[in-house]
Amino acid sequence: MNVNADSLCFWLTLRILATPGLADRIRTETAPHVHVTQPANVLGLAEPPRLKLSLAGLKAECPLLKSCYFEALRLDAAPWSIKHVVKDFVVTEDEKHAPRGGGGGGGAPKSFALHKGEYVHIPHDLHQSDPAYFESPELFKPDRFLVRGQDPDGKPNADMGTIRPYGGGVSLCKGKLFAEGEVLAFVAGILALWEFEPAGANGWQIPGHVKASGVSLPKTNVRVRIRRRKLPSST
Ligand code: HEM
């Protein structure tokens, strides 16, 4: 809540702002679910703006925002899962999804025997940055996780695909849904209330990562100029 999800709010906001035109596309998509009003001043004292969000709407009706959220998880979260093997089993590479076969050589898919009592360590960022699964994995692509659903009007859905930044199995992250709500609400709310521009002459710069427990921390500060967006008056 205040170690991983809040850091992801930073990365997602920054990556949206650094992609030309994307902040406005997301403001348009989220507008029906994010209501900001400016109450009139009382006795000359400025009132703070009011923000009302529909979390259900952000989760179900905003595929572009959700696709960007998955993309920020893919790029900026490097969590680990550690599992204790309780019975012997064999994992075999999937030919279709691991076309390099044999761990990069183009040979037959490899198999790995795992034995009861051993531990398995899964560093999720290896998969999340694998070009066999993600074209130009170093790039932030807002629509990478958009898929065309059954919807007759062709409206896309956002699907997490093969990434598992919240782990899996019995120790699957218990805050997965809370974290998703926190990130979507904060980022939609921040974009609805504020305008940002980079403070330096070099435009938007994405800092490098400092590895942390789940979501990475930025290596350097990001300096921005922030101003209130012009808000509709509630009176
Ligand atoms: C972007 C944010 C977050 C990420 C990337 C994340 C990631 C993870 C991962 C990878 C695991 C281990 C899963 C496994 O063993 O395979 C985990 C476990 C856990 N997470 Fe999160 N998490 C996030 C946010 C949260 C939040 C907000 C909460 C609580 C409100 C939370 C509570 C937990 C708990 C309790 C576990 C241990 C579950 C168990 O062992 O049964 N997480 N998380």
Automatic annotation (TrEMBL):
Bilayer topology annotation: Single-pass membrane protein
GO cellular component, one term: endoplasmic reticulum membrane
Chief localisation class: endoplasmic reticulum
The keyword Manganese appears for this protein: no
Compartments it resides in: Endoplasmic reticulum membrane
Superkingdom per UniProt: Eukaryota
Single annotated GO MF: heme binding
Alphabetical UniProt keywords: Heme, Iron, Lipid biosynthesis, Lipid metabolism, Metal-binding, Signal
The keyword Metal-binding belongs to this UniProt entry's keyword annotation: yes
Cofactor(s) essential for the protein: heme
Position of the signal peptide: 1-23
Chain positions recorded as heme binding sites: 173
Any Pfam family: p450
Family to which the UniProt record says this protein belongs: Belongs to the cytochrome P450 family.
This protein's name: Cytochrome P450
Protein source organism: Trichoglossum hirsutum
